[in-house]
């Protein structure tokens, strides 16, 4: 059989060429997995890991990358601590490892362990995930290391598993711009909880009085009116569904990202700026975040490569006092408030006088409007890396990385109604400043001979973390318009705390393989911490 290929181009004559036999060629490209300090091909892996690409975690409704993990990785359970935007996600990799210590995994961004956890400085408010500072659109891949074989390189810190995040890098070619926007809405996953109407509450109250006093329903109703049971005489006869009043329907999601990437034979860059505004399903104020990143790689000489990454963010979370019985917690009060309680007066103002007589619970619409409760976070992640090729098979790598985080929390309970009424107004201010830096020096030797492959790496890592905490509160304010602590005149309280710890580690990794079938992977690590006594 004769095979002939014919090519046509506009403005040119046709060209026919006999096709030669077996001209197709194939080339296998090994998939590479980033495990933090090193990169390995899938064929060289001996531990258990799962890698997600950017498309796997692309979800506009997921503010933080830990939230985007839900249901994506086998053996990983993600439980949210709150339905509020930006809340901390409780992650468990292959179950619980300790009954008393932390079970949270270690997070590594671009090869460096970073600060993670709940950054809310008040235990009574909505949690705040440290990973809420990252823009999911800037993430290239995410690898979950699950077992001891894959996490051993991180020592004791990796005992609960490790999640390795790699941000996007520049691509060679003409500069390309990408603009993406997402607009959506969200509602409560379960909204079939039906509340009592005003008439149903009266019917239930009448039945309760009749049963307890052994009366007929008519006499029980007369007793309710004469004794003002349940504050019946204050009821205007109208019905108010507080679940609907304190729940935001079709809460908005607004995401905008603008990025650019480009490069040549010696350098490449990736940069982006992003904005996220997410409304909670309660009537609290929205979560807002601005992020920016600049990643740059440069081949300085034939032997020296340089990389830098600057990742900054600024966010505002408007948390809810979910950790206790507070009048400003709409998730609590919406199921406790009586349907007889009128939210507004006839002139449209908030009803607080009649409200206080009707129920011991405050008008949450008023407290949400007149109280202050916000959590602001500024974060900067700076990663620098230099590779020096000493010999053909020997490379020296040094990294210097900084993770700076500042959290500022302010609350104010108004003087007139709710939690601050008895104190004539009360305010809290809490600041946390965390400075974490890591230095990593690495020697890597790779040799291939025949079907044999040997990869040996030696590391020295030094980490220092400094945390400064300040808290102050005060009561008795002259007006709700002056909410700073210098306007308080009673019950001052100030507390502070400072932490400074250091880790130093030596470790080595050996990977040997024969014909990509028989693999030996060994890790040894020795580390010391200033948190243990000498």
Automatic annotation (TrEMBL):
It comes from the Bacteria. Residues 43-162 form the TonB-dependent receptor plug domain. It is a multi-pass membrane protein. One of its GO terms (cellular component) is cell outer membrane. SUPFAM superfamilies: Porins (SSF56935). It is found in: Cell outer membrane. Keywords: Cell outer membrane, Membrane, Receptor, Transmembrane, Transmembrane beta strand, Transport. Belongs to the TonB-dependent receptor family. This is TonB-dependent receptor.
């Amino acid at each position: 059989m004769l095979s002939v290929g014919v090519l046509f181009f506009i403005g040119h004559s046709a060209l026919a060429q006999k096709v030669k036999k077996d001209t197709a060629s194939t080339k296998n490209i090994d998939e590479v997995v980033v495990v933090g300090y090193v990169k390995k091909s899938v064929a060289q892996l001996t531990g258990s890991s799962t890698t997600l690409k950017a498309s796997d975690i692309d979800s506009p409704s997921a503010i933080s990358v830990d939230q985007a993990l839900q249901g994506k990785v086998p053996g990983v359970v993600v439980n949210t601590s709150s339905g509020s935007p930006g809340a901390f996600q409780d992650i468990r990799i292959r179950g619980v490892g300790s009954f008393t210590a932390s079970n949270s995994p270690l997070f590594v961004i671009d090869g460096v362990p970073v600060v993670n956890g709940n950054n809310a400085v008040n235990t009574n408010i909505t949690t705040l995930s440290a990973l809420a500072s990252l823009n999911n659109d800037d993430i290239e891949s995410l690898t979950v290391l699950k077992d001891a074989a894959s996490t051993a390189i991180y020592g004791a810190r990796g005992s609960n598993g490790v999640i390795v995040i790699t941000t996007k890098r520049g691509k060679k070619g003409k500069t390309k711009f990408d603009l993406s926007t997402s607009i959506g809405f969200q509602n409560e996953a379960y909204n079939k909880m039906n509340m009592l109407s005003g008439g149903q509450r009266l019917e239930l109250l009448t039945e309760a009085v009749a049963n307890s006093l052994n009366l007929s329903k008519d006499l029980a109703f007369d007793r309710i009116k004469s004794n003002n049971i349940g504050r019946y005489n204050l009821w205007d006869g109208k019905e108010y569904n507080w679940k609907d009043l304190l729940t935001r329907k079709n809460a908005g999601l607004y995401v905008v990202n603008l990025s650019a990437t480009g490069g040549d034979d010696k350098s490449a860059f990736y940069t982006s700026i992003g904005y996220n505004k997410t409304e909670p399903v309660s009537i609290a104020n929205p979560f807002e975040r601005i992020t920016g990143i600049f990643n740059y790689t440069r081949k300085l000489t034939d032997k020296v490569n340089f990389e830098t990454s600057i990742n900054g963010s600024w966010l505002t979370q408007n948390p809810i006092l979910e950790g206790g019985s507070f009048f400003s917690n709409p998730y609590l009060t919406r199921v406790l408030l009586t349907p007889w309680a009128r939210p507004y007066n006839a002139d449209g103002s908030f009803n607080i006088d009649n409200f206080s007589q009707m129920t011991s619970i405050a008008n949450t619409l008023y407290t949400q409007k007149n109280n202050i409760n916000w959590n602001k976070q500024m974060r900067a992640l700076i990663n620098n890396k230099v590779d020096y090729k000493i010999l053909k098979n020997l490379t020296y790598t040094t990294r210097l990385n900084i993770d700076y985080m500042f959290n500022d929390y302010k609350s104010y309970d108004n003087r007139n109604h709710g939690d601050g009424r008895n104190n004539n107004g009360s305010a809290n201010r809490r600041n946390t400043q965390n400075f974490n830096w890591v230095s990593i020096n690495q020697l890597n030797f790779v040799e291939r001979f025949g079907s044999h492959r040997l990869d040996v790496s030696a590391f020295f890592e030094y980490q220092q973390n400094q945390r400064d905490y300040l808290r102050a509160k005060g009561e008795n304010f002259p007006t709700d318009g002056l909410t700073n602590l210098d306007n308080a005149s009673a019950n001052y309280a100030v507390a502070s705390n400072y932490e400074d710890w250091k880790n130093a580690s030596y470790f080595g990794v050996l990977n040997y393989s024969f014909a990509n079938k028989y693999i030996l992977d060994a890790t040894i690590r020795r580390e010391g911490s200033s948190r243990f006594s000498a």
